[in-house]
Specification:
The structure holds 2 protein chains of 2 kinds.
Chain A: H1 6-39, H2 45-57, H3 60-71, H4 76-83, H5 93-119, H6 122-129, H7 134-145, H8 147-162, H9 166-172, H10 182-191, H11 195-226
Helix pairs in contact in A: 1-5, 1-8, 2-5, 3-5, 3-9, 5-8, 5-9, 6-7, 8-11, 10-11
Chain B: E1 4-12, E2 15-23, E3 26-31, H1 38-46, E4 52-58, E5 61-65, E6 70-71, E7 79-82, H2 94-104, H3 112-118, H4 134-147, E8 152-156, H5 164-175, H6 177-181, E9 184-189, H7 192-198, E10 201-206, E11 209-214, H8 216-220, H9 223-229, E12 234-245, E13 250-255, E14 258-263, E15 273-279, E16 283-286, E17 297-308, E18 313-318, E19 326-331, H10 332-337, E20 345-350, E21 354-355
Parallel strand pairs in B: 3-9, 3-10, 7-8, 8-9
Antiparallel strand pairs in B: 1-2, 1-4, 4-5, 5-6, 10-11, 12-13, 12-15, 13-14, 15-21, 16-20, 17-18, 17-20, 18-19
The chains are: A mainly alpha, B alpha+beta.
Chain lengths: 228, 357
């Protein structure tokens, strides 16, 4: 398998699995949140928006540290979770997903929010006069019209999770086959002066990231061109 | 066949809306300057806005009653709403736009084939909304509103986004709706032509208040309203076709002021009711019947009132107190010269009569 050891391939698999699960969770969590943010007039909008945007400016180590503490056996979430019979969250794949979801939140919320905002009030009002209930309007009008935004959100969330390093290291540590992701594996190889596998993994990530951005911008342009 | 009764208030921005009116089956036109609150009235009726101190009901169905704490959300009201810009769902074909309405209608009082035929949208069914002209989009939007089997139809300047040709094409489709639907239609417009042709009842809205309401013949002939219209001032009246003069290609009508002759009107058979419009600037006044004149129509009428509209002009309202009035825009000098005053018997000379349908 060339310069890559079996543990490197495992890191690739963990990374893909983490990014997939994180993206799915993010779409479920971020879609209603973005819908609410795009439409509410509540004073809570700004604080919630700021909170969801924190990962954009916070050092990953700081975010990772808080998540590590909260999920730990003595933290507010970890303690309750373990008392309910759950396995330890820190240094587990599950903990990794929680950290990644928090860290990727703004990357999913922003495009969704913009897409929902761009729909405007009118199609939803029309649907209301055609006897569509609020949930019906969301499912049959808002979601389909926001499709380009949903695609962008999913792609960005996936790519961002693949590229994550700090939060993962803080929460998941470096357990090969369980929590070790590609970015951490690169770090390990460089620490050990094994440049060949570091090169291969890095080049892989570089190519992947470029491809993702290419797709996002192509989609964005097409969506822009189709707009009336 | 339920009528709409609405009474509500709403303050929003500079608008202070406070109105009460009743819309019977047929077309109630809300007319007024921009900013008068016309669109806001429709939004309140649909439940898209929530006015205060409101009592809104359609027949037995209470849509809003703030004393009783009742507010029915728009999707449970059954209002067809045709917006100014036909807002078709961009992600659905014309057919699926129409199905969207049909699938959610609790009963199908308007059948698919009828709605498609009435609005002539059959050839458009498989097209995307983005590939339709403005007039086609608006026809689809109207068909969609009908297919939701509404109990009240709201139309917010449905022709204003169209050019002259588009307007002329779609007006006949709209004009035929009232007879087919038997439900109250509230039609917002600032076009006198549309209102004159369509309305059974006119509500004149100014600064959020109803300045005047009633049959179009009364409201349009009111001097205050005519003054607001300025040069466009005109009255309407219903007339019955008596017959045709084949030699000179004219049609004889029996109108409220007596018989009149108009240019041959298409296919109208005797007995058919048509609506005529007469501009105030096309009517002059004389004390005797003129014989050697090119004018075809002269009516013996009585002066009801004389209203100055500018330092040089007056509007003279003519007709019986209980019948439709004619308006004549003449100079103050002429009014003075003829000693026009309420009760005086005169002849109205009408230069031009427009038949509206």
């Amino acid at each position: 398998m060339g310069p890559l050891a079996p543990s490197d391939w495992q890191a690739v698999l963990v990374t893909l699995r983490l990014a997939t699960v994180t993206t799915l969770v993010l779409l479920v969590v971020a879609t209603p949140l973005a819908w609410w943010l795009a439409r509410t007039r509540s004073w809570l909008r700004a604080p919630v928006e700021a909170l969801a945007g924190l990962p954009l400016v916070l050092p990953p180590t700081v975010l990772g540290f808080y998540v590590l503490w909260a999920l730990g056996p003595l933290g507010p979430i970890g303690r309750v979770w373990e008392r309910l019979g759950g396995d330890r969250l820190v240094f587990s794949f599950r903990g990794l997903v929680i950290g990644s979801v928090l860290y990727g939140l703004p990357f999913a919320v922003q495009p969704l929010r913009n897409a929902f905002g761009a729909i405007g009030e009118r199609p939803l009002e029309v649907a209301a006069t055609l006897r569509a209930s609020p949930l019906d309007r969301f499912l049959t009008i808002a979601l389909p019209l926001a499709r380009p935004g949903i695609l962008t959100a999913a792609t960005l969330a996936f790519a961002h999770t693949v590229g994550e390093f700090g939060v993962v290291l803080m929460i998941g540590g470096n357990i090969p086959g369980r929590t070790q992701v590609v970015s951490v594996a690169v770090y390990n190889h460089v620490e050990a002066l094994e440049y060949a596998p570091a090169h291969v993994l890095s080049a892989g990530l570089l190519a992947f990231s470029f491809a993702v951005l290419l797709v996002v911008y192509t989609l964005g342009r097409r969506a822009g061109a189709e707009a009336p | 066949m339920s009528a709409l009764d609405a009474r509500f208030r709403l303050r929003v921005g500079a608008l202070d809306l406070d109105i009460a009116f009743r819309a019977e089956p047929g077309v109630t036109a809300i007319l007024g300057p921009s900013g008068a609150g016309k669109t806001t009235v429709l939004r309140c009726l649909a439940g898209l806005r929530r006015p205060a101190d409101a009592v809104i009901h359609l027949g037995d169905a209470v849509w809003q009653d703030d004393r009783a704490g009742i507010f029915v959300p728009p999707h449970r009201r059954g209002v067809g709403y045709v917006f100014q810009e036909a807002d078709l769902f961009a992600h659905l074909s014309v057919r699926r736009n129409l199905r969207y309405a049909l699938d959610r209608a609790p009963e199908h009082r308007v059948r698919w084939d009828d709605a498609v035929a009435w609005l002539g949208v059959g050839p458009l069914l498989d097209r995307a909304p983005g590939r339709l002209s403005g007039g086609e989009r608006q026809r689809v939007a109207i068909a969609r509103a009908l297919l939701s089997s509404p109990r009240l139809l709201l139309m917010d300047e449905p022709l204003s986004a169209l050019d002259e040709v588009g307007r002329r094409d779609i007006l006949p489709y709209i004009a035929e709706l009232p007879a087919r639907l038997a439900l109250p239609i509230v039609y917002v417009s600032h076009s006198l032509t549309e209102v004159a042709r369509l309305a059974d009842h006119v509500v004149w809205l100014v600064d959020g208040r109803i300045r005047r309401a009633g049959p179009p013949a009364d409201v349009l002939a009111h001097p205050e309203f005519a003054q607001w219209l300025g040069d466009a001032a005109a009255v309407v009246a219903d007339a019955v076709v008596q017959g045709h003069d084949d030699r000179f290609h004219l049609t004889r009508l029996d109108g409220p002021w007596g018989p009149m002759l108009v240019r041959r009107h298409g296919s109208s058979e005797p007995g058919r009711r048509v609506r005529v419009q007469i501009a105030a600037s096309d009517v002059s006044v004389g004390l005797a019947r003129e014989t050697d004149t090119s004018i075809l129509n002269q009516f013996a009428v009585r002066v009801r009132d004389v209203t100055p509209t500018s330092p040089s002009d007056v509007l003279v309202r003519l007709g019986r107190d209980d019948g439709p009035a004619l308006l004549a825009r003449i100079t103050r000098r002429s009014a003075h010269h003829l000693a026009l005053a309420p009760g005086r018997d005169v002849y109205a000379r009408v230069k031009s009569v427009a038949v509206l349908d």
